[in-house]
Amino acid sequence: MVYVNYSKENKNPAAMERLGNPEKLGFPALVVLSPSLEVLHTQETSALEAEGGAVAHDPAKVLAFLREWAPKR
Fold first, then answer.
1. Which alpha helices (DSSP H) does the chain contain, by range?
2. Integer CA distances (angstroms), 53 to 48, 49, 56, 71, 72, in order
3. Distance between CA atoms of 45 and 5, rounded to whole angstroms?
4. Which of 30, 32, 54, 64 could form a disulfide with 50 if both were Cys (CB 3.0 to 4.6 A apart)?
5. Residue 6's pLDDT is what?
6. Residues whose CB is less than 8 angstroms from the CB of residue 43 and which lie 6 or more positions away in sequence, other chains included
7. Measured between alpha carbons, how far is 47 from 31 in angstroms, rounded to an integer?
8. Any idea of the CA torsion for 57, 61, 65, 70, to the nearest 10 degrees?
């Protein structure tokens, strides 16, 4: 996992371009990379939020996302 900061003062344009410009989805965003650093999937995180209007991310949804994109053995 790599955390890339994006703010008014620190836009990281080279990193954003390399990651397929995930800022177009809003933040936070998740970018899944292959072992060779190819962008496989980009997703905004609202789909991982808990039901009922809670802002926090639902651990079960986050785990399902991670399992979906985990390397296949």
1. 13-18, 59-69
2. 12, 8, 9, 32, 33
3. 16
4. 54
5. 82
6. 25, 29, 30, 32, 65
7. 14
8. 110
Type of residue numbered 68:
E
- State whether residue 42 is helix, strand or coil: strand
Residue 7 is encoded by which pair of tokens? 């703010």
Cα Rg, the chain, nearest whole Å: 13
Q: What does the pLDDT read at residue 68? A: 95
Asked whether residue 2 carries a pLDDT value surpassing 80, the answer given is no
pLDDT digit string (tens) for 8-53?
A: 898 889 989 999 999 888 888 999 999 898 999 999 998 899 888 6
